[in-house]
User: Which sequence fits this backbone?
């Protein structure tokens, strides 16, 4: 059994829902149950076949971060950087608890030795990007069966908490 984009997407969405307060209507940050929910048609993502959008923080067309099942895309002040999360490591989440700043930067250390920053909306919304990125990185050490089991357990707990 191999890890698919769908299984990576499912575990990340379950993790995000498990750690994020409702309602999920934050200023810049959201997660996506399907690619058709992504409302930013002006942003060219060049998705691969079966690649799914997990979450994003979109401040404006020149400043955003988008996490997919295969990569992290950040455009900061009009300059775009993209990196694969294969072999990446979490490198911090900035001042995500700040009440003074609207956003901060998280950082991942890519396998090629470079760092890639990504936007995190501060406050309660921060859990979407943090848990999306963190979970996607952690899936590398999991088997497909582990991912399936964890997703099922988290979804069951989310369903119970929502009743």
Assistant:
């Amino acid at each position: 059994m191999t890890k698919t984009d769908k299984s990576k997407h499912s575990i990340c969405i379950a993790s995000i829902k498990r750690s994020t307060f409702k309602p999920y209507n934050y200023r810049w940050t959201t997660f996506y149950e399907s690619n058709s929910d992504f409302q930013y048609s002006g942003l060219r993502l060049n998705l691969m076949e079966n690649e799914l959008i997990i979450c994003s923080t979109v401040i404006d067309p020149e400043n955003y971060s988008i996490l997919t099942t295969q990569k992290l895309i950040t455009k900061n002040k009009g300059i775009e950087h993209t990196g694969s999360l294969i072999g990446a490591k979490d490198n911090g989440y900035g001042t995500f608890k700040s009440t003074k700043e609207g956003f901060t930067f998280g950082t991942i250390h890519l396998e090629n030795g470079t760092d890639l920053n990504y936007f995190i909306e501060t406050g309660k919304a921060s859990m979407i990007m943090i848990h999306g990125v963190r979970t996607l990185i952690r899936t590398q050490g999991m088997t497909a069966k582990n991912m399936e089991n964890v997703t099922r357990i988290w979804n069951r707990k989310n369903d119970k908490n929502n009743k």
User: Anything to note?
Assistant: The mean pLDDT is 90. The two ends are 33 Å apart (CA to CA). The first helix runs from residue 5 to 19. Helices lie at 5-19, 126-138, 144-161.
